[in-house]
């Protein structure tokens, strides 16, 4: 594949995100996108704020704002914080955009025409205290499967089973807490997911071994329990309207007026994944606008999503495990329904429209918790992105999260372990190496890459060891094995320190200046290499190293054939020692932060 399309799970608009959100989707996606760009591949990293649903309406009401104003402000906050963390989105869009609104209605129209959407009268929860129908997630009760007492009406967070509000035991309103609720009949649209069960199972079975076991096991669990048809409309004011009259009479992408559906909107889990495509459309329009042109032609964004133009695209998704079912079942059902049709005999055939691309690789993550308990936006427990940046530069957080990313099991954040690992890896290993070699070159070789001398056995061994470790690191990065990648990267940094200790240019220079020159030249080239391969993980520090060595940034990932791996810097190239890259975290700081954010008792 020559092009890489990357999406990370859309952060919900309601509130500043915590470190667990970074760990579960956005940061790994950014590391992978930076890596792919450094390898010279055309890469598009798309994300957006997920803006519809009842939580948005309630949060806006609490602030005395209408939902549109609230979402616009919160989108700007999340965009700014993401950029401050170094997230290199090519575009950070919005699910409330006109592009996504139109796509959602077009997809629904095509699903309706194909017979994959049907009307049903369902029993909905109505809160007499709140005087409104309650969307699924705003009904809370006891899960009938595992007994979890805070299960939502759409899904139990404890056992991940999909639920309907009527399934809950002892239900109550999440808005008011009232148990004065009743069941009333209401008409809604349902996506006939059950029709796609066989095709989904074949598709997911084909991903065994390629996708993480976490992902395929969750997806197959849903299928094994029996794939249920899913309601895709809700009784809300804020969202993509079901019956729209926005583009003239009978516009393309418009459902017919259906009695009983006036004022309803599409369910957030129907329109939000479509937002990946909508945000790509936004990206194309934004580029055209920057170039002084009108709206982008469809081909500018469809080349990433529709066959045959997208045949050379590898589509990679990143998300936490709670989002996996919606991306392995819900969204694929939408795309399969738009892409394909059944004839009178029940046989499948490709629809006339060009098929939309399904995900190729899906990287799912477990949860990052805080001292064994969940980070919580609603309860303010744990470290959030804005507070994290008040305490330390982003690279500290980026490195720790990726070195401990919850790939095979849940990970735990603790201040003590955070301090220990950051001090050891960033300050003692990488920072110490860069400081030692650059300051020595400044003080003893006039601040330039020294010439002279011939490599010896120690230098040749270094080249071989570095190349082997570089190949290992590259393989892990291609396979999105991030904890292994972080370990391999740290081992590369360690090779640099070991080399300096053995070569000891500060000792050699007393009797053999040429030998010292060789060691310093290799050391500075190691620093240049570290800048390039560290950039996906710690881009801010990597840029400082590149600037100190007069190297372009971001750099190109080194070739794996062994040619020039440690020869990026020409003799005579001016260098300067950068400021201290990583200052150590002190015990007093940890004590202060534990007091502020909570420790083991949190």
Q: Give the helix proportion (percent range).
A: 40-55%
Are there runs of 5+ residues with pLDDT below 50, and where?
Answer: 245-251
Strand content range = 5-15%
Indicate the overall shape.
elongated
Q: Any idea what the radius of gyration is?
A: 27 Å
Strands, total number:
19
Distance separating the two termini: 46 Å
How would you write the strand order of the largest sheet? 3-2-1-13-16
Largest sheet: 5 strands, parallel
Structural class: alpha/beta
Separate helix tally:
18
Overall average pLDDT? 92
Short description:
The protein is α/β, with parallel strands linked by helices and 602 residues long. It is built from 18 helices and 19 strands.
Sum up the structure in keywords:
19 strands; 5-stranded parallel sheet; alpha/beta; 602 residues; 4-stranded antiparallel sheet; 18 helices
How is this structure best described in words?
It is a single chain. 44% of the residues lie in helices and 14% in strands. The protein contains 18 helices and 19 strands. The strands form six sheets. A five-stranded parallel beta sheet has the order 3-2-1-13-16. The longest helix is centred in the last third of the chain and has 30 residues, at 415-444.
């Amino acid at each position: 594949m020559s092009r890489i399309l990357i999406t990370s799970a859309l952060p919900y608009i309601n509130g500043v995100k915590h470190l667990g959100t970074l760990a579960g989707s956005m940061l790994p996606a950014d590391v992978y996108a930076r890596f792919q760009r450094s390898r010279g591949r055309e890469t598009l990293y798309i994300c957006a704020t997920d803006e519809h649903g009842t939580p948005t309406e309630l949060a806006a009401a609490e602030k005395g704002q209408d939902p549109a104003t609230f979402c616009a402000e919160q989108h700007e906050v999340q965009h700014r914080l993401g950029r401050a963390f170094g997230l290199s989105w090519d575009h950070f869009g919005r699910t409330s955009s006109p592009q996504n609104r139109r796509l959602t209605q077009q997809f629904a129209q095509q699903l309706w025409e194909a017979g994959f959407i049907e009307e049903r009268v369902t029993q909905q929860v109505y809160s007499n205290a709140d005087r409104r129908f309650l969307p699924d997630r705003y009904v809370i009760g006891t899960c009938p499967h595992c007994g979890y007492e805070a299960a939502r009406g759409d899904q139990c967070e404890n056992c991940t089973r999909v639920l309907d509000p009527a399934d809950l035991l002892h239900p109550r309103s999440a808005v008011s807490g009232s148990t004065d609720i009743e069941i009333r009949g209401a008409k809604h649209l349902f996506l006939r997911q059950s029709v796609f069960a066989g095709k989904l199972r074949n598709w997911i079975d084909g991903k065994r071994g390629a996708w993480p076991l976490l992902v395929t096991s969750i997806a197959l669990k849903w299928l094994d329990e029996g794939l249920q048809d899913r309601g895709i409309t809700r009784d809300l004011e804020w969202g993509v309207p079901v019956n729209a009259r926005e583009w003239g009479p009978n516009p393309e992408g418009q459902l017919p007026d259906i009695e009983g559906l006036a004022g309803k909107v599409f369910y957030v889990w129907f329109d939000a994944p479509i937002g990946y495509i909508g945000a790509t459309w936004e990206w194309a329009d934004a580029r055209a606008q920057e170039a002084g042109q009108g709206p982008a032609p469809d081909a500018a964004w469809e080349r990433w999503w529709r066959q045959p133009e997208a045949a050379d695209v590898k589509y990679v998704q990143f998300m936490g495990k709670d989002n996996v079912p919606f991306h392995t079942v819900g969204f694929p059902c939408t795309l399969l329904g738009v892409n394909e049709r059944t004839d009178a005999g029940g046989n499948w055939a490709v629809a006339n429209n060009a098929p939309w691309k399904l995900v190729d690789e899906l990287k799912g993550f477990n949860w990052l918790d805080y001292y064994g308990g969940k980070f919580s936006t609603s309860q303010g427990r744990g470290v959030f992105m804005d507070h994290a940046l008040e305490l330390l530069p982003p690279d500290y957080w980026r490195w720790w999260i990726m070195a401990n990313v919850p790939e095979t099991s849940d990970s735990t954040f603790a201040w003590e372990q955070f301090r220990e690992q950051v001090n050891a890896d960033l300050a003692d290993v990488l920072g110490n190496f860069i400081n030692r070699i650059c300051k020595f070159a400044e003080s003893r070789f006039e601040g330039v890459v020294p010439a002279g001398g011939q490599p010896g056995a120690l230098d040749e061994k270094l080249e071989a060891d570095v190349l082997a470790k570089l190949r290992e690191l590259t393989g892990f990065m291609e396979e999105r094995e991030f904890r292994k990648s972080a370990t391999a990267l740290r081992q590369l940094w360690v090779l640099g320190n070991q080399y300096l200790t053995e070569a000891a240019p500060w000792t050699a220079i007393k009797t053999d200046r040429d030998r010292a020159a060789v060691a310093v030249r290799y050391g500075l080239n190691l620093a240049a290499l570290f800048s390039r391969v560290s950039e996906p993980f710690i881009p801010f520090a990597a840029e400082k190293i590149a600037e100190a060595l007069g190297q372009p940034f971001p750099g190109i990932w080194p070739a794996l054939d062994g040619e020039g791996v440690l020869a990026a810097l020409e003799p005579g190239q001016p260098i300067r020692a950068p400021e201290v890259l990583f200052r150590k975290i002190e015990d007093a700081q940890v004590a202060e932060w534990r007091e502020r954010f909570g420790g083991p008792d949190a």
